[in-house]
Design brief:
203 residues, alpha/beta, Rossmann fold, nine-stranded mixed sheet, two-stranded antiparallel ribbon, globular
Length: 203
Amino acid sequence: MSYTIGIIGSGHIGHGLATHLAKTTYPVLITNSRGPASLADLVASIGGSLTAADFNQTIAQSDVLFIAVPWAQIPDVAREVQKYSGKIIVDASNNIVSVSPFRLADTAGKPTGEYVAGLFPAQRVVKAFNTLPAATLAQPSPTSIGHSVIIMSGDDADAKKEIADITRAMGFEPIDIGTFRQGGPLQDIGGALSGIELIRVKR
């Protein structure tokens, strides 16, 4: 299927996502709070199908939106996206609100994917790309035996299949671990799969 893909956020995670998405055949837009001019060097260094765009343009034109902003900024993004419906949201966030001291935001007992999905009621949300450290996401361990795994969860099976196709095009191997309630506790900070790089060995 043909998509335009948007990346909201150009920090370490956004940069890593852009590096791999730009190698696909999908048109890819990237935006941040400082405007397209601030992204000129990043886009030039990555190349491929990547283009800088302003915030509203990225939201309006993208069929799939990767959310790679700090946790506290997600509600602001959600307010802009609510003007539209039917987009796929890839939630690549973790609910870290402070590193020193380390502190996680309260999600009212919900896995972070389920919590974020509640902010995007008119969209289809998939939790993915949040378990790898940013440096590993940008540059997975070199190996000839298989591909680095991207863990995903969500309540929309069709959306997960579509994101799985994009994930493979990026050079990763997607593994669906179920619904938000099933997979979230494994994906979220402190979960068994958080911070771990897995390799799916070729058969």
